[in-house]
Amino acid sequence: MSDNVRHKRVLITGCSSGFGLLTAVEAARAGYDVVATMRNLGKADYLRQALDQADATAAIKRLDVTDRDSIEAVAQEYRPVDILINNAGILTMGSFLDITDDEMRTVFETNYFGVVALTRAVVGGMIENGSGLVINIASLAGLIGHIFNAAYSASKHALVGFSKSIRQELKPFNINVVSVEPGYHKTEIIRANANVSENFYDQDSPMLQYNRGFLRLMRDEIIPRAGEAQDVVKIIMKIMAAEKPRAHYVIGKDARFATTMQWLGLTCALEKKIHTKLLAATRRESRRTEDRKAKRKKPPANQ
Ligand SMILES: NC(=O)c1ccc[n+]([C@@H]2O[C@H](COP(=O)([O-])OP(=O)(O)OC[C@H]3O[C@@H](n4cnc5c(N)ncnc54)[C@H](OP(=O)(O)O)[C@@H]3O)[C@@H](O)[C@H]2O)c1
After folding, report:
1. Ligand 1 center to residue 96 CA distance, Å?
2. Can 201 be counted among the known catalytic residues?
3. Model confidence at 222, in pLDDT bands (50, 70, 90)?
4. Which domain holds residue 21?
5. Is 92 near ligand 1, meaning CB less than 6 Å away?
């Protein structure tokens, strides 16, 4: 175990699945003192099993980033934390026209205000300690606009802006702040945890066919090409052990391609490509809907 790892306490949010669970296991296996948190301890068995299989241990605690009492309780119990990984996040898909204000606020409460609250609660101990590292799991959607994900994308842009700002504020205290910006990767956020807005299928919405087309695009092209979650975890582990981590880590082929296009001033070409794919997926989805309707109308062959 290297000196960079020994005794370092790592607090991670959202460890019931995905990057959070896998990072908790990898960090515990590497010898970090891991505090793995999740909002619903009823889901802790997956993490317990994964820790057992890795022959590793971690403290498992309840922490809901939208619940200030749970934030304070964990931050007090485990003060000082050396490395904070703000990983918890939610996704609610749907056009900005259809998503409700409450849904949009819920996304911000988790993806942005939750991070702010927990970082405030933890950073005091890092300042006393004279060092610290905050890793914010943002998203490619925090760097470029993301169709039918305005709420998520805006919350992640806010998170990227927050990271950039506090990185400078915390420098005098020897606290590093890193923003991680993955493209699509195979975790529950694009499977069981992928929510659609309550008005997603509103028959009166001018967006209905495009909302559905976007889902078809996700199913046919985006999810099958998503990267492996472990690729992100490897980079988080690298950041944790780095003496001088970078400010940003863009992860995944899709994310590197999109950010390069943006850097080259070719955002319009990127948007055009996405738009073309969306229209094609919308046509495919409309044809499938028509076919289903036609099949339902067709009388059985023996009549
Ligand atoms: N996978 C991707 O393609 C991708 C790409 C870019 C960025 N990200 C970001 O990566 C982070 C981790 O997501 P993931 O991909 O690993 O997806 P995931 O498997 O869905 O994990 C999300 C985790 O966040 C937790 N969570 C949600 N709301 C919470 C709250 N209020 N308090 C505490 N925990 C909460 C979830 O808990 P429950 O089980 O209780 O819901 C779950 O443990 C997120 O911030 C996400 O935005 C993911």
Report:
1. 21
2. no
3. very high
4. 3-296
5. no
Per residue in 157-181, pLDDT (tens digit) is: 999 999 999 999 999 999 999 999 9
Buried b (16+ CB within 10 A) or exposed e, 122-142: bbebbeebeebbbbbbbbbbb
Query: Any residues with CB less than 8 A from the CB of 275 and at least 6 apart, and which?
Result: none
The string of pLDDT tens digits covering residues 142-152 is 999 999 999 99
83 residue type, one letter: I
Indicate if the pLDDT at residue 1 is higher than 70: no
- 302 inside domain: no
Flag whether pLDDT at 303 surpasses 60: no
Amino acid identity, residue 3?
D
Identify the pLDDT of residue 3: 60
Name the residue type at position 113: F
Which amino acid residue places its CA nearest to atom 44 of ligand 1?
89
Helix, strand, coil percentages (3-state) for the chain, rounded to 5, are: 55, 15, 30
Q: Output the residue whose Cα is nearest ligand 1's atom 16.
A: 18
136 Cβ inside 6 Å of ligand 1:
no
147 lies in a domain? yes
Give a yes or no: residue 61 inside a domain.
yes
SS3 of 17, please?
A: coil
Vertex 245: Cα angle to 182 and 13 (nearest 5): 55
Is residue 131 pLDDT above 80, yes or no?
yes
CATH of the domain at 219: 3.40.50.720
- CB atoms closer than 10 angstroms to residue 302: 4
Active-site entry in 112, 152, 184, 210: 152
Residue type, position 194, single letter: A
Residue 303 domain-assigned (yes or no): no
In short, whether 214's Cβ falls inside 6 Å of ligand 1 is no
pLDDT of 69 over the 80 cut: yes
CB distance 65 to ligand 1 below 6 Å: yes
The mean pLDDT value of the chain amounts to: 95
In the chain, the number of structural domains is: 1
Residue 288 identity (one-letter amino acid): R
